[in-house]
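Workshop exercise sheet. Pairs work together: one partner reads the sequence aloud, the other fills in the structure field after running the prediction. Swap roles for the next sheet.
Pair: D.N. / O.F.
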Amino acid sequence: MGVPRHRIIDMATTNAASALRLSDQTGRLAAGCRADILVVDGDPLAGLYALRAVRLVLAGGRFPIPDSAALPWAQQRPASAEQTDCRG
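Structure field:
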């Protein structure tokens, strides 16, 4: 389609968060943001096929664990964790 790979990744992250009016919470790696991270095997800037080789997913900075499998202490947020605005 002629769209550079870095623009496709921007559209799926930063631009999507802005369109959904969530850019103060997610869409990029910054202090205070949710820390939704997809780790892949390879460089998606070299080839988007790398996005198919998912190695790790973090949602809100944590591994998604089904409620039935999580320990009670693992679901608690530390009192020292502050919620801040991630706009930078």
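Discussion prompt: The two ends are 32 Å apart (CA to CA). What would you look at next?
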